Automatic annotation (TrEMBL):
The complex is composed of two ATP-binding proteins (PotA), two transmembrane proteins (PotB and PotC) and a solute-binding protein (PotD). SMART domains: AAA. This is Spermidine/putrescine import ATP-binding protein PotA. The gene is potA_1. Residues 6-236 form the ABC transporter domain. GO terms for cellular component: ATP-binding cassette (ABC) transporter complex. PANTHER family: SPERMIDINE/PUTRESCINE IMPORT ATP-BINDING PROTEIN POTA (PTHR42781), SPERMIDINE_PUTRESCINE IMPORT ATP-BINDING PROTEIN POTA (PTHR42781:SF4). One of its GO terms (molecular function) is ATP binding. Belongs to the ABC transporter superfamily. Spermidine/putrescine importer (TC 3.A.1.11.1) family. Part of the ABC transporter complex PotABCD involved in spermidine/putrescine import. Responsible for energy coupling to the transport system. Its EC number is 7.6.2.11. It comes from Clostridium vincentii. The keyword Cell membrane applies.
Length: 349
C-alpha cells in the first residue's frame, strides 16, 4: 500500500479577519501527482506555501514522512518549488542557474557537472549550457526552472501555476512534459492551478478547493463524472444543473418527466440537483426523444459543435459532433448512467 509522504492536519490560516484556510486536511501519497484546483482566492497557493514553509498556519500540522515540520525552515525541508515567474537568475547562464543550489551545498565540481548534465538531458536542453537566460523561450525557461529544482533531488516538487504565462500550444505541450518527468523520476508533484484542463490532463488526484475548504478530492475521472456538488460540477467543465425530485432509488423526476438513474440512498421524494454533462445528451428525432427542444445557437468548437437548446422551460448546453440548424426542433435522450444526482444542501457551497 502506498504511504502518505505529506499529511496536512486541520490547517487553518487567517489574513486579518479573513479565513483563508478553514481546518484543511489532505493526505498526499508518495509518487503522486496531486493538483490543488480552484478559483483565485480559494486558498490553494496559501496551502502550497504552508507546505513549502514560506508561510505558517495559525493552527494544524504539516507532517512529512511521519514528522511534524510545521516549524521547520523552508531550506531544511526536502521540498523544492517552481514558481509561475520561474525566478531564474538573469546574470547567469543555463548551466549556472541549474548548478546554483549544488554550489551552495559546496559539492565537488565533477559531481555538479554530472548532475547538471543529467538534468539538461531530462528536460531536453542538452547543448544549452552557455545560453543566456533571456535568450530562451518561455517553455525553455520553464524547463530550466524545473531542472534547477530537481537537481537538488527533492522528495517533493511544488509547482505554483508554472504554466500560466505560456501560450496555449506550449502550455499543452508542457502539461505532457511535466507528467512525463514526474513519472520518470517517481517523485511526488504538488501542482497548483485554476485551469481545469491542466488538472484533468496531468493529475492522479485532484483537490477541488473553494473559500478555504475542500469541495471534493478524487481521481480526474471521479471529479468529472461524479461531482460532489454544484460548485464542482460547474467548475470542472460545463454542466446542465436542474432541480429534480428523487422519487425512490433509481428513479428521478426533472422537467416534469420521470427518468431511470443509477443513484441510491436518497429519501423518498427528496428534492435534489440533477447534473447532466453537455456531451452526454443524445440528439435524436423530435418524435422519439425523451425531451424536445429548439436549437437557438450553434458554435463550432473544433472537435464538436456547442448548441444552446431551449425546451421544457429551460436552456440546455449540448455538445455534439453533428451540427443542427438554428430554429430546428430536436429530440433529446438521456441515459441513466449520464444522470448524476446531488443533494440540495451542496447547492451553495
Amino acid at each position: 500500500m502506498t504511504k502518505n509522504i505529506i499529511e496536512l492536519k486541520g490547517i487553518t490560516k487567517h489574513y486579518g479577519d479573513t479565513i483563508v484556510l478553514n481546518n484543511l486536511s489532505i493526505n498526499i501519497k508518495s509518487n503522486e501527482f496531486l493538483t490543488l484546483l480552484g478559483p483565485s482566492g480559494c486558498g490553494k497557493t496559501t496551502t502550497l506555501n504552508i507546505i513549502a514553509g514560506f508561510e505558517t498556519s495559525d493552527s494544524g500540522e504539516v507532517i512529512f514522512k511521519g514528522n511534524d515540520i510545521s516549524n521547520t525552515p523552508p531550506n531544511e525541508r526536502q521540498l523544492n518549488t517552481v514558481f509561475q515567474k520561474y525566478a531564474l537568475f538573469p546574470h547567469m547562464d543555463v548551466y549556472e542557474n541549474i548548478a546554483f543550489g549544488l554550489k551552495i551545498k559546496k559539492l565537488p565540481n565533477d559531481t555538479i557537472d554530472i548532475k547538471v548534465q543529467e538534468m539538461l538531458t531530462l528536460v531536453s536542453l542538452s547543448g544549452f549550457e552557455k545560453r543566456n537566460i533571456q535568450s530562451l523561450s518561455g517553455g525553455q525557461q520553464q524547463r530550466v526552472a524545473i531542472a534547477r529544482a530537481l537537481v537538488n533531488e527533492p522528495e517533493v516538487l511544488l509547482l505554483d501555476e508554472p504554466l500560466g504565462s505560456l501560450d496555449l500550444k506550449l502550455r499543452k505541450e508542457m502539461q505532457l512534459e511535466l507528467k512525463s518527468i514526474q513519472q520518470r523520476l517517481g517523485i511526488t508533484f504538488i501542482f497548483v492551478t485554476h485551469d481545469q484542463e491542466e488538472a484533468l490532463t496531468m493529475s492522479d488526484t485532484i483537490v477541488v478547493m473553494n473559500k478555504g475548504g475542500i469541495q471534493q478530492m478524487g481521481s480526474p475521472e471521479d471529479i468529472y463524472n461524479e461531482p460532489a456538488n454544484s460548485f464542482v460540477a460547474n467548475f470542472i467543465g460545463e454542466s446542465n444543473i436542474l432541480d429534480g425530485i428523487m422519487v425512490e432509488d433509481l428513479k428521478v423526476i426533472f422537467c416534469t418527466k420521470e427518468f431511470n438513474c443509477v443513484d441510491r440512498g436518497f429519501n423518498p421524494n427528496e428534492k435534489i440537483d440533477v447534473v447532466i454533462r453537455p456531451e452526454d445528451i443524445k440528439i435524436v428525432s423530435s418524435k422519439k426523444g425523451m425531451l424536445q427542444g429548439t436549437v437557438r445557437s450553434v458554435i463550432f468548437k473544433g472537435v464538436h459543435y456547442e448548441m444552446i437548446v431551449e425546451g421544457n422551460n429551460r436552456s440546455w448546453i449540448i455538445q455534439n459532433t453533428k451540427c443542427h440548424d438554428v430554429d430546428s426542433i430536436i429530440g433529446l435522450d438521456i441515459y441513466p448512467e449520464d444522470i448524476h444526482i446531488m443533494r440540495k444542501v451542496a447547492r451553495n457551497e
